[in-house]
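Field reference: sequence -> structure
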Amino acid sequence: MPPKPKYEQLQLAAFRLRTDVPWERRLYLLRFPEAWKKPLTTLAKPRRNGEEIRSIPIALLNDVIAALVPDVITVVTRATIGENAPWIYSDVEVDTESLFLIIATWVRATASDPRKVDAILGKLHHSDLAWTPLDVDFTTLTSDTDDRIRSDELYRLLPHVIAAELSAPDLQHVHLMPKNPDADPGDESTEVEQVISRFHRTPSEEGACVMNWPPHRMPQRPLSYMINITAQSRAFGSQPLVHLSVGTRRWAHKEAKLSFSHGHSVYMLPSLPWLPGLNRSRSFLVASIESWKKEAPDTNDGFEYSARWAGGKMGKILRELGLTVDGKLPDPEVLKKTPAKYLAAPNAAALVYSNGMYPFDHPVAPGTSLADKVPIVDWVANTLTDRLVLFEPLRKGTKTVLDLKKLKESKFAASEAAQLRRSIADTVGDTLGVDIFYDTTHTKNYARVTLAKLLGIEVPEDTDRLTGKPATVTTEELTVLITVRPVGAWGGGLAGDTAITDKDHFQAAVHNRIDKIGEELGDAGVPTISLVEIKGRKSYAGKQRTSDPKFAIKAGLSRTGRLAQCVTEAPESTTFEGDEEAPTSDSSLEKMRFSWYDLLRQLGVRTADLPVQLGGATIREEPAYLAFWLIRQNQRSRWEGITRQVPVAVLIDPTGRHIQACAPNVRWTPLHRAQHEISRHHMLTDQKRTPEEITRFFEQVLRGVARQYPSLLLLTSAQNLRWGWPHLNNPDMAIDTIKFGQQPQDITRYPGLRHVRLRTTERDEVPDTWAVNSKEEGHAPGCWPDENRIFFSTGEKPRSASSAVKSASKVVPRWRKGQLVNPSTKSMVWNARALELTVAAIQPNDDPEEWATLVHDLRWATPHYEYSISLPWPLAVAKQIAQYIMPLDLIEDVEEIEADISSPVEDGQ
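Structure field:
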């Protein structure tokens, strides 16, 4: 009998609304005046096609309002002629003259011609701004207005009302030292109060947020806790749910280095209103500062990098309103150099810390352990007991579909060299090219030794640098053509000593590198994998960040028919020379081995069939797997301002050993070739597709594949796809249907097809979760059935997170072996990130839990990684195609936010 699991239940930080207790609130609604829209369209640039401009982008105006007016919620970023949509909600009727002052200043900052300013302002009057009382019943999410407010707008209001209650002036959360678990049972000692958190509302892009102030661990380790609150729905249900996620905000307390590619958030808590007529509030306001180059005649360079309010227009607005004098707003340059000065000031301001600001690590590690997270959620539940009801814990499912023991035996790490060679030949043919492009001898030796052991072959010291002719190694199963040579100049930074500051410069640098690689290497005659040594990220910090050549190298090698993995220099080892095998505990050896594993993953290699266990209630034959993914990027930065939407599909046969991919203009092709073709057609290109075009592509793919296999499992990700396929939105989903056009089609029209849609923690659509038993909280892998075809999937802690401590609070001591241990701000944090699985469509008589369990088990199915990954394997394959289309690492830098450490299994993808 297998051992009883340590944790048999999963707790969600999710709540249902109480409907047995009245909960009504009066709010105030402001719509953008219709009479203003036509004159304000003259602020927009004329369209190239000559079409009439019918909407005004007011995102900057919303940003200014968020920076100056407390406790308001802006809900639209465009004011469109003829649409009477809500614009601002508020707890109070904000003085309209103060609002008009802000709006007029925005007009002056936005218009390029002073005459245009006068013409526009002559048609705007503050009396056009009129607040409408709005009584909302939050037990039913209905309002009393004659002009119907959309339910999704009321969804947006719900988190803000909850945030207002959690930030009441007399409310506080007391952090308690836990009881000693090793004490005698008769010990009546109580928990001891340690610190107190008082929360304040703060602007949030999604839902609402409250944050404690003043910060804890001042002045050397400043941190605050955030409670993010969102209102969510589920498929096949209409009742709103409230989700919580608890995070840690780290504050800059030393001189900070600002990014050259994006702004940095500053949270401000003024003691008095900044503008006349505004109400006093102790809610946070937020704006951004950015780095800029200003003249400095007294310096050697004649210039220096300083700080200013982000966006020239924002700074202009703040100056015109008189807020940059008399200490009303912090001086950006002083805030950058001495941020601690403002943390304890009456008019508090706090610069959010982000990686790279210091040449050393912040004294507070990112992430929030269960020791802090669980008490905060419990406090919310107790505080709002008249409003919300916490979900009951879920019981762990008992089914399995994939044989996890056989899956583990089929990993690359457990495979014999001959078996691996045979599997490579089955996937790509009887000849494989392998390149080692090195910069340092010790890195080359690590690469050679790990490759030799992996494939059981002799790897030469170097190959002919003049002719480029590879060494040929012949085995019974596979012929390997090996090249070992220095990487040369094409492995260096993209722009030399200059910074890449715009998309044209970036694209030109990438294409120049692609051409250089092609000229130097020529086309690979056979499927080829290339390991390339490049400088680490520290060599491309600050304004040189966009000179990182990783993406250009991958794209350039792809053009020549090579799949690439970039590695950084391995440290020299005193016990490692030449062909001598490195110690098994060597971290560089591990890193290099996983780099080879990733290259085999890119080829689509598996060493054994997927071990589907048949004989269950409804899964009686192995299914094939179809994964849809949308590679999507909007214009976000100065250097990579491209818009693209590239839909891709991945098809995996029932054995898991034959993987194909397709995209627009790329037919079904084996994975190792499809990545090259998709990159060739779609890399760094402006490709704007409408949702209708994307939906049509996926419909055509599904129709072409549906009858190829008697059983087919379709996997989709809601956050990734629903923009392009609106059917995946909760309100639009109907059980056991597939919908591409106006009318849903019953799943039986696609015999053998099943569809499971997942949601991730992105945008807090899946709340915080943790496993529980009668004594403690922790993390545990499992598939956890909920209700109405909803399941939750959690993975296990990987080896890379073995040092994470779930009981290490950042603010209170803990017990360890009967002794008190001080709070730890440096302890690593790992939290399981649950997936929500919705069994959206199955065939008659199917068991939904079996199909959910199969999707859960697929998180362990990737052959190159020993632990669970963050997505089911077929979706992970589809997502990873993006690495040959866009510079993912650089985009992630631009979008960096402060949050909990996500699961290190991301590295396993």
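Note: Confidence is low (pLDDT under 50) at residues 635-642, 891-909.
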